[in-house]
Design brief:
This protein has 3 helices and 10 strands; from the N terminus they run E-E-E-E-E-E-E-E-E-E-H-H-H. It is of the alpha+beta class and 180 residues long. Residues 65-160 form the DUF402 domain.
Length: 180
Amino acid sequence: MKRKYANRADWPRILSKRYEQQRLDHAGFHGYITWLWLDRVKQPLEVEVQGVRRCVAGDGYVWMQLFPDGGRHTLTIMLDRKLQVRQWYYDVAREVGLSPDGIPYWDDMYLDVVCFSPYEPDLIDQDDLDAALEEGVISEEDYEETCREAEALLQSVKDGTNPLIRVGLEQVESMAAGLK
């Protein structure tokens, strides 16, 4: 398991970036929202999900991430230069918190839910979770809790009840309106 930070301080792909974060307490969401502006990257990051290949990190892209208080997952919304959503990416976590420096983090539990539209999820990296269990990196209890969290997350995304979707859509619309 690896602790990951919202500011992506150790990501060598990024040549130049800007980072902001804000506390957000609003109906259905209490936690932090972060913005990572990828001003320049060494090379674009392309991924293939559900049989579609797509760029999710390039010059001028923005990664907006939501960290719910006490949550067991985070949501990263990857936006292109025109603030069009390229991908919704949920990281299942053992814990979501704040570093001593006040930077949001998550303890990554390997299993992820990815979507190209907000309500059509795909579970990925099950093999990474299975390997972590087999290698003794995580316990059987961690494994089972992670699988339960992923199943609940998949269902809440499919039926539109995951509160991060609504908050994320509102934030994207607000960003886009600010450009007009």
